[in-house]
Amino acid sequence: MQISLVGLGQVGTALGFALSKYSDKITLVGFDKDFEKQSRAKTIGAINKSPINLINAVKDAEIIVISTPYSAVKELFSQIHQDLKPNAVVICAAPNKEITAKWFREVFPTTNQFIGLTVSFNPEYTRHLDPSEVIEKTDLFNNTSIGISSPTGTSEQALKYASDLVELLGAKVQYLDILEADGIERTSHLLPQVLSYLLLHSTVDVPGWNEARLYTNQPYLSVASPFGHESPTDLADLLLDAEKPMLAILDDTIEKLRQFRDSIADHNVEEIKKTVKKSITNKSTLMKARKTGNWFERISDEKNDVKKTNFIKQLFIGRGR
User: Fold this and answer.
1) What is the spatial distance between Cα 109 and Cα 113, in angstroms, rounded to a whole number?
2) Confidence band (pLDDT; 50, 70, 90) for 246?
3) Topology of domain 182-292, CATH
4) Do the Cβ atoms of 73 and 101 come closer than 8 Å?
5) Cβ contacts of 114 within 8 Å, gap of 6 or more
6) Hey, what CATH class is 2-181+307-317 in?
7) Within the chain, which residue ranges are assigned CATH 1.10.3660.10?
8) Over pLDDT 90: what percentage of the chain?
9) pLDDT number for residue 295
């Protein structure tokens, strides 16, 4: 079984490293147009093979996992769509999955299938994780949920490929509608970056900054930490391609900020305390669930439930293990 990882940044390399414990059953082939990233992934054991040609990296794969920047996805699809094996499954971790699924179907034959991947990392390793940092841990996805989403008509086999892959990573599978996956990523991934940029934009190089910067401790740095997960080009593309939903999210955020401002202007101590206490409780609940992975009891959904034959898992690691 060959899995090809296209894009060997933080996510792609992490996926390879987490799967490396099955290297006796899986051939991990990696490609990145940045040869330094590709060489690093090979050196640390995140991939077994590193061909210099993109087509050679994907043509024999049963599963292709794409973790490139969003702005590279459409061109990448156009480069590989004629060279995949029949029934090969393309799993894409880029945001805006409704759009990337549309790009996919415009060029790929109907025998190939698209699956969206919404990734989260083990919180033990991500508290102070820099966007460019690669974590060499095989349990990087333990106690996490990874979402898989797919267009209508996706084959059961493709969904099994994706779900078995997620289980091999050590994560729990969550089946998401594509629009639901996009909403989750805009709230949990894009909005924090926007707020981070705006904090820096509104404080750096304004009067008093030369003095204030000397005292930028944990409160400031923790809010600024999402900075840099997307390049300026990628972030602009992501926001503009999802204009209406992102404007709705930003409008709601601005309204919450305005309400808090009004509480200050009105000297409404009780409302300020109520808002802060609620936020503290919500964060505590989030961090506890994030650490334990105990979010909710799994509810069987007849529409989305995939039979647990796990034939790929048996192929990877054998029966009865």
Assistant:
1) 9
2) very high
3) 6-phosphogluconate dehydrogenase C-terminal fold (1.10.3660)
4) no
5) 89, 90, 92, 100, 101, 104, 105, 108, 150, 151, 154
6) alpha beta
7) 182-292
8) 71
9) 66
